[in-house]
Amino acid sequence: MPERVVVPIQDELDIVRARQEGRQLAKEAGFGPVDLARVATAISELARNIYNYARPGSIELGAVQRGSRRGIEVVAQDQGPGIADIEEAMRDGYTTSGGLGAGLPGTRRLVDEFEIESERGVGTKVTIRKWLR
Ligand SMILES: Nc1ncnc2c1ncn2[C@@H]1O[C@H](COP(=O)(O)OP(=O)(O)OP(=O)(O)O)[C@@H](O)[C@H]1O
Ligand SMILES: [Mg+2]
Asked: How far is the CA of 67 from the centre of ligand 2 (A)?
């Protein structure tokens, strides 16, 4: 796969770095301004979750191709506490931190593909993909 970038998520500024790297990559891939904003927001939400609940972790970004379709893939990964009930965590308004509980369900709506794997005591991996129209 060409050009994969890994941004470690440890400090709060790393959230901004991941967002900028993602925006840059998505721009190079040919996404328009609205989708750029969607990708950047999705990356911020995933990076902030790592920072808030599971740091350190990482955001891996890369261009992807499937058949004739091109897009961007983002893998957010950590070895944090994991999520006990994924279904619950994906519900609008569910939060354990007094947040809005909008991060994960919102991210799912912003992208074309959303996969989440999490195991208590092992960590969490979220993979998202956005395809060029
Ligand atoms: N990487 C992670 N590791 C462990 N728990 C997580 C992780 N990401 C999310 N969670 C759990 O899932 C819940 C829902 O996450 P979500 O991002 O939807 O909402 P939030 O972070 O609580 O609020 P918001 O994102 O709206 O500020 C979190 O409150 C937290 O308990
Ligand atoms: Mg969140």
From this structure: 33
Starting at the earlier edge strand, list the strands of the sheet with 57-66. 4-9, 57-66, 69-78, 123-131, 113-119
Count of all residues that appear for the chain in the document: 133
Residue nearest to atom 19 of ligand 1 (CA): 101
Q: So what's the pLDDT on residue 3?
A: 77
Residues contacting ligand 1 via CB (< 6 Å): 45, 49-50, 53-54, 78, 80-81, 83, 89, 94-97, 99-105, 124
- CATH number for the domain spanning 109: value is 3.30.565.10
Per the structure, the complete domain to which residue 91 belongs is given by: 4-131
Model confidence pLDDT, tens digit, residues 95-110: 999 999 999 999 999 9
Domain count, the chain: 1
- Calculate mean pLDDT across residues 65-86: 97
Average pLDDT, the chain: 97
